[in-house]
Amino acid sequence: MKQNPYAGLKKVILAGMILVPLVPFVLVLGIGYYYFTDSLENNTIASIQRIVHDHRQMIESFLMERKSNLEFVLNTYTFEDLSQADKLKRTFGSLQKESSAFVDLGIFDENGLHVAYHGPYSLSGKVYDQAPWFKAVMKKGFYISNVFLGYRQVPHFVIAVAKMNQGRQWVIRATIDTQIFNDLVKKVRIGKTGEAYLLDTEGVFQTERRSGGSLMGSDPDRPKYGPVHDGIKAFIDTDAYGEPFLYATTWLKEKSWLLIVRQEKADAFKALYQAAYLIVLISVLGGIIIVAIAFILTDRIIRRMERMDQEKDQLGEQLFRAGRLAEIGEMASGFAHEINNPLQIIKSEYALIEMIFEDLKKKGDIKESDDLAEMGDSIEQIKVQVDRCADITQAILQFGRKGESVAKDIDLQTFIPEVTGMVANKAGVHGIVIEQEITDQIPGVHGDPRYLQQVLVNLLNNAIDAVIVRHGSSGGAIRIESGSAGNRHVEIKIRDNGSGISSENLKKIFTPFFTTKPVGEGTGLGLSVCHGIINKMGGSMLVDSRENIGTTFTIQLPSAK
Amino acid sequence: MEAMKIMLVDDEERFLSTTKKLLTKKGIDVVTATSGAEALEMLQNKYVHVVILDVKMPGMDGNETLKEIKNRFPLVEVIMLTGHATIESAIDGLKCGATDYLMKPTEIDELIVKAKEAFRKRLLVEEKIYMAQSRSYRKSPREILKEAEKTAR
Q1: Per the confidence metrics, is the pTM higher than 0.80?
Q2: CB contacts < 8 Å between A and B, how many?
Q3: A83-103, pLDDT tens digit by residue?
Q4: Looking at the predicted structure, is the pLDDT value of residue A380 above 80?
Q5: In chain A, whose CA is at the least distance from the CA of B57?
């Protein structure tokens, strides 16, 4: 057997079957993934930008409100009013009603002297003229400090507002509860890891960070945020611990504080990653399914093609054999016909010789002797051999027979037993049991009964001969089965347990003149004639045989309507 | 009884000569022809009861010859001699008026048997003709005169 001739074709089909669905599949998934993730990413970024924007506004309005509170106090009361402790206390009370974030309230004159104070500490009398916040507020009229420890050694920040009043300048300062402010800033919640915090320009935490970063601690990531800028920046970067984050940053307007809202990248893009996983999963599964189906289908196609090719080859071989047989038949019959003429002459010559011979003997012209007897025997042989030749030519002519035959419907149920009866005697003599199994509803066939009889008798005789070779005179069995073969065909099987046919001989079995019988006992034409007859009836004849097990001849004939 | 006269027609000369010897020894009068044309020519001059005619011959074949013989010498009985492959021609021959057929290679005895059958048939037909003719002789002289007049006219 040569190397699989379908290997190339198989590759092409396989490639086609995998690529054709896979390419659009991958394209759809890829394009879908691209646009989906793009839009999801944009959405996520837009959303964090919106959050940072809203959050900044909230923080700014908180600071502005506190500033307005103080300005209101500044404008409502005079320096002298507020220098009195009980007046200051009342004012603080009303301030606290506005916002509980106010922790204390202090009044300073233009020299930085803490004139009056209301709060949990005793800070009155201290001079702040050198404190940076005081200088700043005196200069700008308004100041919000970074978070610092100050005299109290507690983190806090202050809001101070200055006012020019009747030629003198005075300052009101309030401390803001870092806890309340802290909570306000931290309040943002996005996903699991979303957080918001404030840094000053130096990168010092002005509020706590949930994921670690204590108040007044230093953020090592400060350089990433760049210098003070307008608007909102969103970017993805890794923090000092190597964790990737989605950042959105913005600088507050009133104060050089940087508001940072950040979320772990994995958390921020969770939906995106889920989609990606799902897409990968679908691609892998889909890919596997496509490839598997391609393999299975290709395999089926190739197998079907192989089978069809085999069938085609077989058919071709059958046609070739049939054609060759027909050719041989034609040739042989022409040949036989020509042989008959010389045979006719030989026969006549023999008759003449015999006649003359008898005459001579009668007249006494030749004397009886051993030689004479031998000559007589020899002459007799001429007749015997000519008759043998005649038998052969008869058989050949039968094989190559053309033309009319008397076709009629044959009822196999009665026909087969009749034919079997013809050889029953011969079989019985050799102890061969002939079984018959003919289905009741077997359809008839259409053909010349004489020819079909010839075929069956021939096959049965062959079977008997094969059985005798193997079993002698006991133990032989021949079985005839007949029934419908489906597809409007009838089947006749003749099975024997005889000597069988070697696989080499099996190929030549229908060839004219092929015989395994000794010279003079068989012409080698029987089966080729049978084959010709069955073919002419539109049927087929197959043989299956195993040496020393037996032989089965199967005849299929189209059933009569 | 009259001796049977047979004509053998075949293109095989040796067959003709040997068979002729054989049949002559059996007391049968035999003439031979090697083709249909020769046979027809000889039939004009020779009186033959039975023709044994090979189907397959070069030139004019058996069936053509048969038709011609039956046309020109309707009383002559013809037996077709055929090879197996030309059995259909033999059947055609029978349809065209051949008496019988013989299959090659044939036994000389069988040939004689069939020839004799044909001969008897021929004799029977001749006898019938003779009877019919003698009946016409028994017609009245007037009728005979009338017929003579017709022929003269």
Answers
A1: no
A2: 62
A3: 888 888 888 988 888 888 888
A4: yes
A5: A341
DSSP-based three-state secondary structure for A45:
helix
User: Does A344 contact B104 at a Cβ distance shorter than 8 Å?
Assistant: yes
Decide if B105 and A333 are in contact by the 8 Å CB cutoff.
no
CB spacing of A352 vs B18 below 8 angstroms: yes
Contacts of range A140-143, beta carbons closer than 8 Å, 24 or more positions apart: A142/A67
Whether domain A408-558 has CATH 1.10.10.350: the reply is no
Asked if A340 and B104 come within 8 Å (Cβ–Cβ), the reply is yes
Reference A394, options A282, A206, A529, A298; nearest CA is A529
Name every chain B residue with its beta carbon within 8 A of the beta carbon of A347. 105-108
B74, two tokens: 């309707």
For A8, A79, A83, A163, the CA distances from A168, given in Å and listed in that order, are 102, 9, 14, 8
With CA atoms as reference, report the closest residue to A478 among A555, A411, A423, A535: A423
> Parallel, antiparallel, or unpaired for β B77-82 and B50-54?
parallel
CB contact under 8 A, A351 and B108: yes
The answer to whether the Cβ–Cβ distance between A348 and B104 falls below 8 Å is no
Nearest CA to A59 out of A224, A261, A230 is that of A261
Cis status, amide bond into B105, omega within 30 of 0: yes
Check if the beta carbon of residue A316 is closer than 8 Å to that of residue A308. Answer: no
Instruction: Based on DSSP, count helices (H) and strands (E) in chain A, helices before strands.
Output: 12, 16
Alpha-carbon span A265 to A263, nearest angstrom: 6
For A348, the closest of B22, B25, B85 (CB atoms) is B22
Establish if B21 touches chain A: CB-CB under 8 angstroms: yes
3-state DSSP assignment of residue A102: strand
Would you say A117 and A106 are in contact if contact means Cβ atoms under 8 Å apart?
Answer: yes
Min Cα–Cα distance to chain B from A346, Å = 9
* A110, A353, A454, A492, B143 from A560: Cα distances, Å: 133, 54, 20, 15, 66
Continuous segment of H or E residues that includes residue A291: helix A270-363
| Domain parsing of chain A, residue ranges | 1-268, 272-399, 408-558
Residue listed under structure tokens 């611990």: A241
pLDDT, tens only, B47-106: 999 999 988 888 888 889 999 999 999 999 999 988 755 667 777 888 888 999 888 888
For residues A13-18, average pLDDT? 88
Measured between beta carbons, the chain B residues lying within 8 angstroms of A348 are 15, 18-19, 22, 108
Is B19 close to A390, i.e. CB distance below 8 A? no
ipTM: 0.75
Per-domain residue ranges of chain B: 5-152
Query: Looking at beta carbons, which residues of chain B come within 8 Å of A352?
Result: 18, 21-22
**Whether the Cβ atoms of residue A90 and residue A76 lie closer than 8 Å to each other:** no
The superfamily CATH assigns to domain A1-268 is PAS domain (3.30.450.20)
| Dihedral angle computed from the Cα positions of residues B39, B40, B45 and B46, in that order, rounded to the nearest 10 degrees | 50
| Local confidence band at A321 (pLDDT 50, 70, 90 cut-offs) | confident
Identify the pLDDT of residue A401.
55
What DSSP line would sit under chain B, residue for residue?
Answer: -PPPEEEEE-S-HHHHHHHHHHHHHTT-EEEEESSHHHHHHHHHHS--SEEEEES--SSS-HHHHHHHHHHH-TT-EEEEEE-GGGHHHHHHHHHTT--EEEESS--HHHHHHHHHHHHHHHHHHHHHHHHHHHHHHTS-HHHHHHHHHHHH-
Q: Which fold has domain B5-152?
A: Rossmann fold (3.40.50)
B106 at interface of A, judged by CB pairs closer than 8 A: yes
Q: Do A348 and B108 count as a contact with CB atoms less than 8 A apart?
A: yes
The partner residues of A251 in beta bridges, in order of sequence, read A258
Q: Which residues make beta-bridge pairs with A495?
A: A479, A552
* Cross-chain Cβ contact A340/B21 below 8 Å: no
CA A337 to chain centre: 68
Q: Does B35 touch chain A (CB under 8 A)?
A: no
Q: How many CA atoms lie within 13 A of A296 on its CB side?
A: 6
